[in-house]
Amino acid sequence: xxxxxxxxxxxxxxxxxxxxxxxxxxxxxxxTEVTEAACKVLxxxxxxxxxxxxxxTLLAGGxxxxxxxxxxxxxxxxxCKKSDSVLLGAVGGPKWDNLPGAERPERALLDLRGGLELFxxxxxxxxxxxxxxxxxxxxxxxxxxxxxxxxxxLTGGLYFGDRGRRPGGVMPDGSPKGMEAFDTEAYSxxxxxxxxxxxxxxxxxxxxxxxxxxxxxxxxxxxxxxxxNERVAKEYPEVEYEYYYVDNAAMxxxxxxxxxxxxxxxxxxxxxxxxxxxxxxxxIGMLPSASLGKPGxxxxxxxxxxxxxxxxxxxxxxxxxxxxxxxxxxxWSFGLGEEADLIxxxxxxxxxxxxxxxxxxxxxxxxxxxxxxxxxxxxxxIV
Length: 383
Ligand code: IPM
Ligand code: MG
Known about the structure:
single chain, globular, alpha/beta, 11 helices, ten-stranded mixed beta sheet
């Protein structure tokens, strides 16, 4: 897929003389540590290539609830809209776990995704050969490697449908049900079509295979999902197209992950499947993501892992997912492919030399390091 179709259009990068304005949202827990790591790596890249990354640090999530009473203020969203791109760490933590749904730190993510119209969430799941021992799968399941691009719809479905509570009526035996809670999965043809096209375009540029994941044997929204997929598939005869029910997809992903290329799916199924993909590649600490919308809107880049409050502030977090998210930002928002390649190679080089944060330290002879040293080791290859 052409980078241009997602780049921050309306901006002439050459005219901007290599100055890129990045809204940085560290968020909560390990979010602070990993975004700091990613910015250090970005600065190293800037030094080498003569770019200038200008950061504006913003509050969102639990820290914003503490400071402003809400997870995302309209001013913060506005700052994000004005930026060229958003780099986010993670939000949430036990301190805010008992707040009502609409007031939780996670609300910031939904408001950013919705507010910036980031409908396409790209979650690449790659098995680094150096980390194959960290994967819980047997060697025979890993023989074809893992290189999957999960394309998760991000602004519709269950996450954004009507929800609420209402009196629940009576059980078959006549006893009262009490309150009933509901969430709604709704997808329109237009919403489905735009995400499916992202899937096909990506597949066309990769191994030319697209797997659409739904639950069309039960859900009406999935039946429409499949209809639209099949219609769009006709425009991409060069891409092999298949579909799975989500339960089967979850099974096949652990049995033969090497057979998948691009997976396109709904918001809810994408959330689940991407964690599964994270697990089979060894560590969710290695997985970056890009959330992209229509041209003209900034993209948002964030590690797939959460705020991991249990290890926050202890220099234990794996910075690789955030660093790789920064690489995705360079590639997808700024069209800086060479710079992105260099970051990805620098991560591989650090792994090759044996450096491992605790989450990926599965072999005897590896060198266990913390967040800061891992970042330094990655930067050693960016000179
Ligand atoms: C993710 C996370 C979020 C989601 C949570 C934190 C709201 O799990 O990005 O996968 O469910 O989308
Ligand atoms: Mg998730």
